[in-house]
TrEMBL record:
Keywords: Cell membrane, Membrane, Transmembrane, Transmembrane helix
Transmembrane segments: 86-105, 136-155, 161-180, 430-451, 478-495, 507-527
Lineage, uppermost ranks: Bacteria, Bacillati, Actinomycetota, Actinomycetes, Kitasatosporales
Membrane topology, from the record: Multi-pass membrane protein
PANTHER family the UniProt entry points to: MULTIDRUG RESISTANCE PROTEIN MDTO, P-HYDROXYBENZOIC ACID EFFLUX PUMP SUBUNIT-RELATED
Assigned protein family: Belongs to the YccS/YhfK family.
Gene Ontology CC annotations of this record: plasma membrane
The species this protein was found in: Streptomyces coryli
Domain Integral membrane bound transporter span(s) in chain numbering: 396-518
Protein name: FUSC family protein
Protein localization: Cell membrane
One Pfam family in the UniProt entry: FUSC-like
Residues of the Integral membrane protein YccS N-terminal domain: 93-202
Cross-referenced InterPro entries: Memb_transporter_dom (IPR049453), YccS_N (IPR032692)
Length: 698
């Protein structure tokens, strides 16, 4: 029943190897699809506000307006399920407030340093809310560093803050007036989930223990959470497919499994392969239609396979027959859903289908405050990042003040844009920013030297640079840094800055800021390795809670509360698994030994937990319509009790003991009314996996 184990990860990185790998990853160009229309819309927003500010105001005011529109556009490009206009407006509001507050304190160096330190700490804590909040918060620090050098009075500072907000408002307005592929990111998330399940069905034809990455399903669930206003406007095609994909996935695994499904060889297995191929065809066709916003076209051959034959049963009696019939019923639901119109659902009362609710207004603020409060502890990587960011930005500001360069803020700006909560991103972005900045400012300086551009031509070149930035943003941070460097050089050309001095200052101060950022992480790290045991204990607890909920469901009457408990436990288990996967990915790139858990043990423990989660999923697919296994309740209770002690043992590096689970299994095997039942077989296999886990971390 246990699939082949994965190979253990490579040995720990040395500092030289880790830095080399990070630098190589940072300057590499990623393969991604480009969105020229969206890039054009963002560049038009920058161009309009820049032209208007040059017409009615001064070059300095134009630079502020361009920065506001540029940063708001960058915010709207971040991967988020929030409405793009809201991202642009939120970024613009933060930029305006930070620039105005910075100017008020700029005349008092000590006060400005305190404000900069506090604001940087808050920007670092923004990562507790999410990556988008972290990026936007960093942009507000950048605004404070740059824009304070432009006004000459409080009134002008207020005007600059207003023009920054106006730039964000313009970007939001363009997004509303000229939508490009509306609901496109949600369509992609749902289509990716359907395609992932289709690919899983195809792989199960060859390997009944094929692994499945739940990330697409998790992203589809996040995308499905909408505000009440969005729910009224959401296309019908985005309503039910995610639930069907979630329901089909465990049925596919149960049908393919040789223990609780069809035999490993013979006519039954051939029929299973036909069903899996047909199900994959249906899901692929649905994913393609959802992505494109068109009607679903399903091949007739696949539909013929997914029918109950008139001359006999689908499979011999038993769990395999039940799984096959369930798969046929679910694919019929997919076909029926495909006949629904794809247009936007009409605005109606609360009688429409339920939806996952996304908080708005005060609710969103409460969620953000809770997230920040959870990270206000010394062990949190986000808190340590905030402290590091505050200290290093302040140090860069003080050091730059001692240098003769006019654009002192570029060093601190580099720190803000490079530092991230984890090692790999920090060093990747440091290398990418240095290489990209040298390329960008070098090219922009050469262009200015050749054309002798005035304010208007410099503005046009800046708009072209920002359009290229928006277009190439999916390719990686090196491309973004090159375009940003060129954009800044062209902007400073608007106010008459000498391009030669600008180029060399930016390169030198970028190098200074990058060195400060990378050295600070080495001196004050937030390594993930020591926390691997804690992450593993969380995953073990969540996985066991899911398994216990499924076993308990086999001993109880069907109810919505039972289904809700199983569903919530499954979501918690997925979240814990993704937290573990992200933690080990960060730890594997760190140039330190795994002081919490060796790489080999981490790989072995991961395999056991993936298999344990798969076993619980198989049993969930065979949950009866009534209480069939009363002994399952005792097994679930023993599993819950033993897991609490096992999680503590993992954290404290004690031997893990599953004696209560073994005792409950022995009683079940002795007293079982159905010795060959699916639940008992799964319990036996799950207990074996728990023993494998104990050996892995012992």
């Amino acid at each position: 029943m246990t699939p082949a184990r994965a190979r253990p990860p490579a040995r720990a990185h040395s500092w030289s190897r880790a830095l080399r790998d990070a630098a190589r990853a940072g300057v590499s160009v990623e393969r991604a699809s480009l969105t020229p229309l969206i890039a054009l819309r963002g560049a038009v927003g920058v161009g309009l506000i820049l032209a208007w500010a040059l017409w009615v105001g001064s070059p300095a005011l134009a630079v502020s307006s361009a920065f506001g529109a540029f940063a708001s556009g960058v915010a709207s490009f971040q991967r988020s399920w929030r409405p793009r206009p809201a991202l642009a407006l939120g970024a613009a509001a933060g930029l305006a407030v930070s620039s105005f507050c910075g100017y008020l304190a700029a005349g008092h160096p000590a006060l400005f340093l305190v404000l900069l330190a506090v604001w940087s700490f808050g920007a670092g804590m923004g990562w507790a809310i999410g990556p988008v909040s972290g990026v936007v918060s960093a942009l507000t620090v950048a605004a404070m560093l740059i824009v304070v050098t432009l006004p000459t009075s409080v009134a002008e500072a207020a005007m600059h803050a207003g023009i920054i907000a106006l730039g964000g408002l313009l970007q939001a307005t363009l997004i509303v007036l000229f939508p490009v592929r509306p609901w496109g990111n949600r369509r992609d998330a749902l289509a990716d989930a359907l395609a992932a399940v289709a690919d899983y069905a195809r792989r199960l034809r060859e390997d009944p223990y094929a692994p499945f990455d739940p990330q697409p399903l998790m992203e589809a669930r996040e995308a499905a959470a909408v505000t009440p206003r969005q729910a009224r406007r959401r296309p019908r095609q985005l309503h039910g497919y995610r639930t069907l994909a979630e329901s089909i996935r465990p049925v596919l695994a149960s049908l393919a499994d040789p223990v609780v499904g069809a035999a490993a060889e013979g006519p039954e297995r051939d029929r299973v392969r036909e069903l899996l191929r047909a199900a994959a065809t249906v899901l692929d066709a649905t994913a393609r239609a959802v992505r494109r916003g068109e009607s679903v076209r399903i091949p007739e051959q696949a539909l013929d396979v997914l029918k109950v034959p008139e001359d006999g049963p689908v499979l011999p009696p038993g769990p395999a027959r039940k799984a096959a019939l369930r798969l046929i019923a679910l694919t019929e639901e997919v076909v029926e859903a495909a006949q629904e119109p794809v247009e936007v659902a009409p605005s109606a009362s609360g009688t429409g289908p339920a939806h996952l609710r996304r908080p708005t207004g005060p609710g969103l603020l409460r969620v953000a405050l809770r997230a920040v409060r959870r990270e206000l502890r010394w062990s949190s990587p986000v808190f340590r990042h905030a402290v590091r960011l505050s200290a290093v930005v302040s140090a860069a500001y003080l050091l730059a003040q001692m240098l003769p360069q006019q654009h002192w803020y570029w060093g601190a700006l580099t720190v803000v844009m490079v530092l991230r909560p984890d090692f790999s991103q920090t060093y990747q972005r440091g290398a990418a920013r240095l290489v990209g900045t040298i390329a960008g400012v070098g090219i922009a300086g050469g262009v200015l030297a050749l054309v002798h551009a005035g304010p208007r031509l410099s503005a046009l070149l800046a708009v072209l640079a920002v359009g290229l930035l928006y277009l190439l943003m999916p390719l990686g941070y090196a491309a973004v840094s090159a375009c940003t460097g060129a954009y800044v050089v062209f902007l400073l050309g608007i106010v008459g800055e000498d391009w030669a001095q600008t180029v060399w200052e930016r390169i030198a101060l970028t190098l200074l800021g990058g060195v400060l950022a990378t050295v600070s992480y080495a001196l004050f790290p937030a390594w993930e390795s020591p926390w691997l045991r804690d992450r593993l204990a969380r995953w073990l607890t969540a996985n066991s809670r899911y398994a216990a909920a499924v076993f308990a469901a086999n001993a109880e009457e069907p109810s919505k509360d039972r289904q809700r408990a199983v569903r919530q436990a499954l979501l918690d288990a997925r979240a814990a698994r993704m937290e573990w996967e992200e933690a080990t990915a960060r730890a594997d790139s760190e140039p330190v030994r795994h002081r919490g858990l060796s790489r080999r043990k981490a790989a072995e423990a991961r395999d056991t937990q993936i298999t344990a989660g798969r076993l619980a999923m198989l049993l969930e697919a065979h949950t009866p319509n009534g209480p069939a296994e009363p002994e399952a309740r005792d097994f679930a209770a023993a599993l819950t009790e033993a897991t609490a002690d096992a999680a503590a043992a993992v954290r404290e590096r004690r031997p893990v003991d599953w004696a209560p689970v073994h005792a409950a299994l022995a009683r079940w095997q002795r007293d079982a009314e159905h010795p060959g039942g699916v639940a008992l077989r799964v319990a036996d296999l799950l207990t074996a996996e728990l023993d494998e886990f104990a050996a892995a971390v012992g």
